[in-house]
Amino acid sequence: PALSIFHRIAGVALSAGTLLLAWWLIAAATSDAAFDTVSAVMRHPLGLLVLFGWTASLWYHFCAGIRHLAWDAGYGFSLPSVHRSGWAVLAATAVLTLLTWVGVAMVL
Q1: How far is CA 72 from the centre of its chain?
Q2: pLDDT the model gives residue 8
């Protein structure tokens, strides 16, 4: 039940993060000063923490969504399978989030 609740929470976090993405895109289209403001906010340690959380939410929601698709197809309902797939979702989320941020660090 906890992973299902986290899936919903991740969906809400994605909505909030998408507002940040929209702010960034609008600022980029508006002016250099507006873009610099958004960039400064997102490069602040708190902004980076929010972006890291948004990335983790994105990957978690993606991986949990694949798990739900398997369930919709009728696979993975035995209790051992549920536990394995739950741990797989968490592991994949951690790996994909870290790989994303390693890529970000290489660009910065």
Answers
A1: 22
A2: 92
Up-side HSE of residue 101: CA atoms within 13 Å toward CB? 16
| Distance spanning both ends of the chain, measured CA to CA | 38
Tens digits of residue pLDDT in 42-53: 999 999 999 999
Q: Which residues contact 75 (CB under 8 A, 6 or more apart)?
A: 81
What the block records as the tokens of 39 is 């960039």
Core vs surface per residue 66-83: b (16+ CB within 10 A) or e: ebeeeeeeeeeeeeeeee
Whole-model pTM: value is 0.88
Q: What is the 3-state secondary structure (H, E, C) of 35-60?
A: HHHHHHHHHCHHHHHHHHHHHHHHHH
Amino acid identity for residue 105 in this structure: A
User: Can you give the pLDDT at residue 108?
Assistant: 77
